[in-house]
Design brief:
The chain is of the alpha+beta class. The chain has one domain: Arc Repressor Mutant, subunit A. Helix content is 34%, strand content 17%. It has four helices and six strands. The strands form two sheets. A three-stranded antiparallel β-sheet has the order 1-3-2. A three-stranded mixed β-sheet has the order 5-4-6, with no helix packed on it. β2 and β3 form a beta hairpin. α1 crosses α2 and α3 crosses α4. It is found in: Cytoplasm.
Length: 138
């Protein structure tokens, strides 16, 4: 990891109030080191960290992704109830889920209109709305 990637990763972790440990830095470097937004699963991040030569277990990847979400650094987007993608882009935006390749990408938000939401139960507030548009070959 180059100096600017490491600096970007360290700053990102500190913004979430997380100590920049070796394992967190390795994962953060793959997530935000190049400054690009991405969507990853725990498994795809685990494979990438292995290819990068870092020693991090799959359990650590899962736990660290959860910690990044709790710190407000990532959003989790659940697809099919069993598959979670972790999104580095934090603003409200819709997603395309490509059923044939099992990938998640950002969708253009310009044409999306949400006319209304049901009222939240008493004592609760809507924290966010996830819009996943599933795509299959026509």
């Amino acid at each position: 990891m180059g100096y600017s990637e490491q600096q970007r990763s360290t700053t990102w972790l500190l913004r979430g109030g997380l100590r920049p440990t070796r394992q967190r830095l390795a994962l953060a470097g793959l997530l935000v080191g190049d400054g690009m937004d991405r969507h990853v699963t725990a498994e795809s991040l685990y494979a990438a960290v292995g290819e990068a030569g870092a020693k991090v277990s799959l359990a650590t990847v899962y736990n660290t992704l959860r910690a990044f979400c709790e710190a407000g650094l990532l959003n989790e987007v659940v697809v099919d109830g069993a598959r979670s993608y972790f999104d580095t882009r934090l603003d409200d935006h819709p997603h395309f889920y490509w059923e044939d390749s099992h990938t998640l990408t950002d969708a253009p938000a310009e044409d999306l209109v949400i006319a209304g939401l049901p009222e939240a139960p008493e004592g609760m507030a809507v924290s966010r709305v996830d819009v996943v548009i599933r795509l299959k070959r026509a």
